[in-house]
Specification:
- It is a single chain.
- This protein has helices at 24-35, 83-95, 112-121, 130-136, 163-170, 199-210, 227-232, 244-249, 261-268, and strands at 6-9, 39-43, 60-63, 68-71, 74-78, 99-104, 108-111, 139-142, 151-159, 175-183, 187-194, 217-221, 235-238, 252-253.
- It has 272 residues and is of the alpha/beta class.
- It has two domains: 6-79 and 197-268, Rossmann fold; 83-194, Hypothetical Protein, Haloacid Dehalogenase-like Hydrolase, Chain: A, domain 2 (2-Layer Sandwich), CATH 3.30.1240.10.
- The strands form two sheets. Strands 5-4-3-2-1-12-13-14 form an eight-stranded mixed beta sheet, sandwiched between helices. The chain has a six-stranded mixed beta sheet with strand order 8-7-6-9-11-10, with helices on both faces.
- Helix 1 packs parallel to helix 9 (261-268).
- The chain is globular, with a radius of gyration of 18 Å.
Length: 272
């Protein structure tokens, strides 16, 4: 591949896992691909406020699962929840006992009473829930939804119903729910986003803005919210640690994040 490629990279489960930094092998592949003239763009479900600082130095950052698109640190597109959408998401999640975080461009927010209850319930579980606690500790306590500014999406944990129930109740409002995981300890967890904005729509938007043909784009990810990105790109690659349905949607499957899957994908497709 001699022409310049636009490469979209998920963070969690693709570049990072289990709270560890990017491996040196993968970091070296990223540097070499950039030196070879390719564009690198983070494409994450995290809000911009939760994107690691070193990853904000990539050519582009797509955050909040496609609701915010930045290029060279300039905001090209930013879609926020309306007051009504924030209230709707919060109400439905509270109805099913979920703990939720409203993720804004600059800050993470939680209702004060939910935040206090969560930390009480986590007493004695600090070690086993270290990663999740580090996320919740960054939140600002709020007494009302109106205090939560520039909210792109909402992450939730410990829901007592599955996402099919949430999707059914959200869809008429132009919103949807995507699954992170289901486990005995955390229940059902995932994120609420606007249906019209996905990682896939962001891939198409940015490639059009830059004038890069979609066939010259590559997307690498591992989870449900990466599906639209993988389908939209010229070449969609699933990590080896992806679920089967993500692998089935991809054009190719690389090694797992623990095995430096991004490095191997970059080598295979001539980026390095």
């Amino acid at each position: 591949m001699n022409c310049k490629k636009l490469v979209f990279l998920d963070i969690d489960g693709t570049l990072l896992y289990e709270g560890r930094p990017i491996s040196e092998k993968t970091a070296q592949a990223l540097r070499q691909a950039k030196d070879n003239g390719h564009y690198l763009c983070i494409c994450t479900g995290r809000a911009y406020s939760e994107t690691p600082e070193e990853m904000k130095e990539f050519d582009g950052v797509i955050s909040a699962a496609g609701a915010c698109v930045m290029w060279k640190k300039k905001v090209l597109l930013a879609e926020y929840f309306s007051e009504e959408e924030k209230k709707l998401a919060a109400g439905l999640l509270e109805d099913i006992g979920a703990v939720y975080i409203m993720e804004g461009f600059e800050n993470l927010y939680m209702k004060k009473e939910i935040r206090e209850r969560f930390f009480r319930e986590m007493e004695g579980r600090e070690e086993q829930e270290k990663f999740l606690l580090s996320f919740f500790l960054k939140t600002l306590p709020c007494t009302s939804i109106r205090e939560m500014d520039k909210v792109h999406k909402c992450s939730f944990f410990y829901a007592e119903k599955d996402n099919n129930w949430l999707k059914e109740n959200l869809k008429k409002w132009g919103m949807t729910a995507t699954t992170f995981s289901q486990s005995e300890t955390r229940g059902n967890s995932g994120e609420v986003t606007k249906t019209a904005f996905t990682k896939g729509t962001a891939v198409r938007y940015l490639s059009g803005y830059l004038g890069v043909p979609i066939e010259d784009t590559i997307a690498i990810g591992d989870s449900e919210n990466d599906l639209e990105m993988i389908r939209a790109a010229g070449i969609g690659i699933a990590m080896g640690n992806s679920s089967d349905y993500v692998k089935e949607a991809a054009d190719d499957v690389t090694k797992s994040v623990a095995e430096d899957g991004v490095y191997h994908a970059f080598r295979k497709y001539g980026l390095i």
